[in-house]
Amino acid sequence: MTMTRIPHSVSFTFNPLVDFNITIFYFATELASCMFTSVYPEIYMRRKIPFQKRLSWNFYQPSGTGIDLGFFEMDNL
């Protein structure tokens, strides 16, 4: 039997007061001065998503850019 894996993605609603970018990091480590790096860069390529100042933005991670948690054994998550 083949199991279909569904990638997990991020979504939320927000109200930015200034123009900005969102960058999603999966399995990241924080470095000095609030910088982040991916622990597994081969499984997810980060990308910046720009937003403009506006009320009630709904963010839905673009289709095909989620993370497949089936990459890991359950005990390692």
From TrEMBL:
Residues 8-77 form the MGRN1/RNF157-like N-terminal domain. The chain crosses the membrane at residues 20-40. InterPro entries: MGRN1/RNF157-like, MGRN1/RNF157-like_N. It comes from the Eukaryota. Its EC number is 2.3.2.27. Keywords: Membrane, Metal-binding, Transferase, Transmembrane, Transmembrane helix, Ubl conjugation pathway, Zinc, Zinc-finger. GO terms for molecular function: ubiquitin protein ligase activity; zinc ion binding. One of its GO terms (biological process) is protein ubiquitination. The keyword Zinc applies. The keyword Lyase does not apply. It catalyses: S-ubiquitinyl-[E2 ubiquitin-conjugating enzyme]-L-cysteine + [acceptor protein]-L-lysine = [E2 ubiquitin-conjugating enzyme]-L-cysteine + N(6)-ubiquitinyl-[acceptor protein]-L-lysine. It is an enzyme of class 2 (transferase). This is RING-type E3 ubiquitin transferase.
